[in-house]
Design brief:
Distance between the termini: 8 Å
Shape: globular
CATH class of the largest domain: Alpha Beta
CATH topology of the largest domain: Rossmann fold
Radius of gyration: 17 Å
Largest sheet: 6 strands, parallel
CATH superfamily of the largest domain: HAD superfamily/HAD-like
CATH architecture of the largest domain: 3-Layer(aba) Sandwich
Order of helices and strands: EEHHHHEHEHEHEHEE
């Protein structure tokens, strides 16, 4: 029986792409470059700074300027963390329904706590989430199961009784490795991949469909 639902953050719980894309385009503007369309940055949002800097500037972590540009990007994003970020349509209603059913819910993301916790606070859900596990909460990031196992421990519910919901194949891999049931969302960023190929236990096209899986 599922008694807890854990969500990835970017591309699953909230649409963070506009604010992350803004940080990239602020950097481009400072260098006299034209903005990159949101559609281009959106598809790599789940990859964080690495993906966004690749699209925005064509650089990889091996580039000599990468670390400085990454810190510049992160600082710009931190300064405007939740200007246009919103929950995906239907997510707020799903959370209300989970709470009405006494189903515990929380966040497990590769986003650092430095961003994840303030973002959840600004969205108005930090105190409602039973846990917020960031990419630096444990020694490993997804697809390693450690963050999900830490979440299960934090909420006091066995992994086998948890459902993990994500928009990237690494989410599904992490959920399986942690012994949780997994749900892939078609409405997320997907990182250019087909969720049909991820071997998730379930696929949904909207958050409200998740309630029917419990």
């Amino acid at each position: 029986m599922t008694t807890a639902v854990l969500f990835d953050l970017d591309g699953t719980f909230a649409d963070t792409a506009p604010d992350l894309g803004l940080a990239v385009n602020t950097m481009r503007a400072a260098r006299g470059l034209s903005p990159v369309p949101l559609a281009d940055t959106r598809r790599v949002t789940s990859l964080g700074a690495r993906g966004l800097l690749s699209v925005g500037f064509g650089i990889t972590p091996e580039h000599p300027d990468y670390l400085a540009m990454r810190e510049e990007f992160l600082q710009l994003y931190e300064n405007k963390l939740c200007c246009e970020t919103t929950l995906f349509p239907g997510m707020a209603e799903l959370i209300d329904r989970l709470e009405q059913r006494n189903v515990v819910w929380g966040i497990v993301t590769n986003k650092a706590e430095r961003f994840a916790k303030p973002l959840m606070l600004q969205l108005g859900y930090a105190t409602r989430a039973a846990c917020i596990i960031g990419g630096d909460t444990t020694a490993h990031m997804k697809p390693h199961p450690a963050p999900l196992l830490a979440a299960a421990e934090a909420i006091g519910i066995a992994p086998q009784s948890c459902l993990y919901v994500g928009d990237d194949e690494r989410d599904i891999r992490a959920g399986r490795a942690a012994g949780m049931r997994t749900v892939a969302v078609r409405f997320g960023y997907l990182n250019g991949s087909n969720p049909e190929d991820w071997n998730a236990d379930s696929l949904v096209s909207s958050p409200l469909e998740i309630e029917n899986i419990l």
